[in-house]
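About this split. The held-out portion is used to measure sequence recovery: a designer receives only the structure tokens and must propose an amino acid at every position. Recovery is the fraction of positions where the proposal matches the reference. Here is one held-out target exactly as it appears in the evaluation file.
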């Protein structure tokens, strides 16, 4: 679901839409509509929010990109 999102700047409504999908999956699996129950299930199953996942993936991507030995990557990073 998050493939390729680290290379593209996500807007708030994109992140909210993705978070809605995750919340809906938890609501369906646990047969509940309570946001408190959904948040507790996500916490106890160690499921980070979409924003946190995107932040981690973006940071990891940028670190790898900056350390790449590819000539194109080196040229762009030096700008």
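Reference sequence for scoring:
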């Amino acid at each position: 679901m998050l493939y390729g999102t680290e290379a593209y700047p996500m807007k708030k409504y994109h992140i909210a839409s993705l978070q809605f999908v995750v919340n809906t999956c938890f609501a369906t699996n646990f047969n509940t509509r309570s946001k408190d129950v959904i948040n507790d299930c996500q916490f106890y199953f160690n499921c980070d929010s979409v924003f946190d996942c995107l932040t981690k993936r973006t940071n990891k991507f940028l670190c790898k990109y900056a350390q790449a030995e590819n000539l194109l990557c080196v040229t762009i990073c030096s700008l």
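Annotator remark: Residues 5-77 form one domain.
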